[in-house]
């Protein structure tokens, strides 16, 4: 069934290096491949420095990828872009940022912040139409018309994140990249925003690339998950495959570290440790292995056999 | 059950003068900390959990003032037991006698709580040299052993490192080593792992627990992550809008929560078995501390609010000897209201597993 569906986004061997000095280069993302299908949520998890945010930013072309191919709706967007391609990318792919305080212009009213995309791409004919569009989107994210004439500092953190979401939604995107969109929020507000994102996805059918380090949230919202470590995608598969049958030791250690609201179980549990140097795992020598379904694990043949045996 | 009380906070009220008026950040907090135990204070931002511990440390910001209340600290000096109300001490006395020496604190962000111009060895030795006039050599040896205690390999080599040469998790370990350097009676951890990843978070929490087992210090945790609380706490206090709304042993609060706000917090956090329905949310946004309205601060966001919630603030009702909750639902005339079904199912499932 999966073969019939055309992927919305196809990332092949994406590499993103940053030159620090003449001799030294940081390999933030080192050969990552994955696909996102229309209407699904793909969760990217990993520790800080694993390159998950970099991937999001390379995809939306805040960075120029060092090598590799990114295809978005059949159009290659990893190379240099002409005007039309840029416009296609800038409208159909949108991003929600981590810090709702820092990503909104404090000197603009919410109306103008949300309408900025419309302004740039000239997507309205009259002023009324512009306002109407903004009001509709604000209603969709649970804000009212009156909020449009206020400034960002007059809102709480959760409301600000809603404005960020509204700004992304107004372009009617096919793919939303949510880069740690809920990490800066309180627990009770996190749940509100996550529910909102799910609701919106059900309404508009857009796909979401959900980047986060909170695994329980990722599990809750994602259809498929990719686990990143040191710029390599070590394991990917559907949520059930990853959580039900984790193969890679790094995934296992991540799963074992999630705190649960259960004092008795929690006090007994000890998190597994993982150190790829100590365990002699070399990502560069490893290749992606098919496990079953949509489940792929990065490793050499011997390693995969060893990890499988332990299960 | 003869536990030694180390800290006891009574009727603490703190307010801040702001441009918009007076904000009552803490409104009558009552808390006890016993020797060798771990107390966790949970709540969302603005609930006053950080302000409470800042008051203990005497590091409230300039516009804050303590309206009333006492913080009694019991410690031993030269074999004698001393009782001291921390709020009566001047800032200078606090600095000399309490801060770092008796009560040490670990802050949220290890990046900003270390001095970038000093080697970490020097920073660990600083407190000992200052408070106890420890000879340099002795302090050095202790610093090395502290570094290995917090799980840093090759401690001698690391002593000469600067903070920027270490990773986030290592830095937080160094901060803990600094906090432990003067053998404090109480360790306060203000969101010690929020800035860290889950894997490192688990390691740091296990480390603090291990140190506690070994040295017998009391720990106060401040966090909004209930999973962290479940892992470390003996005793839990849930704060909302400057008041403690529920407190009790960890098992009591997690398996038999009574306050609707605790229900909300617990249900809003998806566990790994949560199925695909919408997450439970606490409606509305956090309470505005400026307001001095009548009634329960949580009433507007409470789906189970009774009529009386809008008129009178609920007192603390006793559930068991150790478990208290401030909600009118526990009053004998209150209607029978149970926690949400999803939460009930989850708790019974956890109990079965345990």
TrEMBL record, chain A:
Domain of life: Bacteria
InterPro entries to which the protein is assigned, alphabetical: AAA+_ATPase, ABC_transp_ATP-bind, ABC_transporter-like_ATP-bd, ABC_transporter-like_CS, Oligopep_ABC_C, P-loop_NTPase
GO-annotated biological processes: peptide transport; transmembrane transport
Family stated for the protein in its record: Belongs to the ABC transporter superfamily.
Name of the protein described by the UniProt record: Peptide ABC transporter ATP-binding protein
Species: Lacrimispora algidixylanolytica
Keyword Transport: yes
Family annotation (SUPFAM superfamilies): P-loop containing nucleoside triphosphate hydrolases (SSF52540)
PANTHER family reported in the protein's UniProt record: D,D-DIPEPTIDE TRANSPORT ATP-BINDING PROTEIN DDPF-RELATED, TRANSPORT ATP-BINDING PROTEIN
The keyword ATP-binding appears for this protein: yes
TrEMBL record, chain B:
Membrane topology: Peripheral membrane protein
Name of protein: Peptide ABC transporter ATP-binding protein
Protein source organism: Lacrimispora algidixylanolytica
Subcellular location(s) per record: Cell membrane
PANTHER family named in the record: DIPEPTIDE TRANSPORT ATP-BINDING PROTEIN DPPD, OLIGOPEPTIDE TRANSPORT ATP-BINDING PROTEIN APPD
One record GO biological process: peptide transport
Family: Belongs to the ABC transporter superfamily.
Keywords for the protein's UniProt record, in alphabetical order: ATP-binding, Cell membrane, Membrane, Nucleotide-binding, Transport
Keyword Transcription regulation: no
A GO MF term: ATP hydrolysis activity
GO cellular component terms, A-Z: plasma membrane
Principal location listed in the UniProt entry: membrane
Domain ABC transporter per the UniProt entry, residue ranges: 9-266
Signal peptide: none
Matching Pfam families: ABC_tran, oligo_HPY
Domain of life: Bacteria
SUPFAM superfamilies per UniProt: P-loop containing nucleoside triphosphate hydrolases (SSF52540)
């Amino acid at each position: 069934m999966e073969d019939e569906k055309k992927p919305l986004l196809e990332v092949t061997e994406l590499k993103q290096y940053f030159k620090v000095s003449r001799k030294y280069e940081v390999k933030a993302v080192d050969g990552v491949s994955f696909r996102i299908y229309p209407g699904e949520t793909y969760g990217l998890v990993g520790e800080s420095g694993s390159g998950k945010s970099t991937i999001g930013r390379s995809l939306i072309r805040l960075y120029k990828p060092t090598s590799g191919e990114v295809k978005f709706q059949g159009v290659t967007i990893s190379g240099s872009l002409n005007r039309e391609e840029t416009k296609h990318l800038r409208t159909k792919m949108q991003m929600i940022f981590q810090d709702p305080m820092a990503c909104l212009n404090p000197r603009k009213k919410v109306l103008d912040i949300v309408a900025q995309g419309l302004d740039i791409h000239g997507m309205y004919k009259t002023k009324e139409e512009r306002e109407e569009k903004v009001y509709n989107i604000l209603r969709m994210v649970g804000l009212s018309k009156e909020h449009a004439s206020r400034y960002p500092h007059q809102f709480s953190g959760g409301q600000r994140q809603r404005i960020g979401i509204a700004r992304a939604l107004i372009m009617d995107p096919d793919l939303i990249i949510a880069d740690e969109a809920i990490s800066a929020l309180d627990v009770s507000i996190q749940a509100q925003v996550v529910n909102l994102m799910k609701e919106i996805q059900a309404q508009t059918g857009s796909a979401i690339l959900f980047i986060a380090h909170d695994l329980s949230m990722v599990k809750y919202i994602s259809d498929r998950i990719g686990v990143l470590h040191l710029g390599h995608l070590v394991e990917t598969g559907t949520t059930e495959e990853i959580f039900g049958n984790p193969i890679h030791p790094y995934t296992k250690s991540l799963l074992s570290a999630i705190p649960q609201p259960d004092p008795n179980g929690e006090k007994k549990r000890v998190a597994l440790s993982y150190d790829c140097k100590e365990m002699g795992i070399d990502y560069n020598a490893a290749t992606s292995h098919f496990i079953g379904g949509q489940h792929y694990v990065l490793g050499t043949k011997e390693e995969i056999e060893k990890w499988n045996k332990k299960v | 059950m003869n536990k030694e009380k180390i800290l006891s906070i009574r009727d603490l009220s703190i307010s801040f003068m702001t441009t918009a008026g007076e904000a009552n950040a803490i409104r009558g907090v009552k808390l006890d900390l016993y020797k060798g135990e771990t107390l966790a204070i949970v709540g969302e931002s603005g609930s006053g959990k950080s302000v409470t511990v800042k008051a203990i440390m005497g590091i409230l910001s300039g516009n804050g003032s303590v309206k009333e209340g006492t913080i009694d600290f019991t410690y031993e000096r030269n074999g004698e037991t001393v009782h001291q109300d921390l709020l009566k001490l001047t800032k200078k006395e606090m600095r000399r006698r309490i801060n770092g020496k008796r009560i040490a604190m670990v802050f949220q962000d290890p990046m900003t709580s270390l001095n970038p111009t000093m080697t970490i060895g020097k920073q660990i030795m600083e407190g000992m040299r200052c408070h106890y006039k420890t000879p340099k050599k002795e302090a050095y040896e202790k610093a090395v052993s502290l570094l290995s205690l917090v799980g840093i390999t090759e401690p001698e080599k690391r002593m000469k490192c600067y903070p920027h040469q270490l990773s986030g998790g290592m830095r937080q370990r160094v901060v803990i080593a600094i906090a432990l350097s003067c053998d404090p009676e109480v360790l306060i951890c203000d969101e010690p792992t929020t800035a860290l990843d889950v894997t490192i978070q688990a390691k740091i929490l296990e480390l603090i627990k291990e140190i506690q087992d070994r040295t017998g210090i009391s720990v106060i945790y401040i966090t909004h992550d209930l999973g962290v609380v479940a892992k470390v706490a003996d005793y839990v206090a849930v704060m909302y809008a400057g008041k403690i709304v529920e407190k009790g042993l960890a098992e009591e609060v997690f398996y038999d929560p009574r306050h609707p706000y605790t229900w909300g917090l617990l249900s809003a956090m998806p566990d790994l078995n949560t199925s695909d329905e919408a997450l439970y949310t606490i409606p509305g946004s956090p309470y505005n501390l400026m307001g001095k309205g009548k009634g329960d601060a949580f009433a507007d966001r409470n789906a189970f609010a009774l009529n009386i919630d809008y008129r009178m603030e609920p007192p603390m009702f006793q559930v068991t000897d150790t478990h208290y909750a401030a909600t009118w639902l526990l009053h004998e005339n209150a209607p029978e209201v149970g926690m949400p079904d999803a939460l009930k199912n989850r708790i019974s499932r956890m109990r079965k597993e345990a």
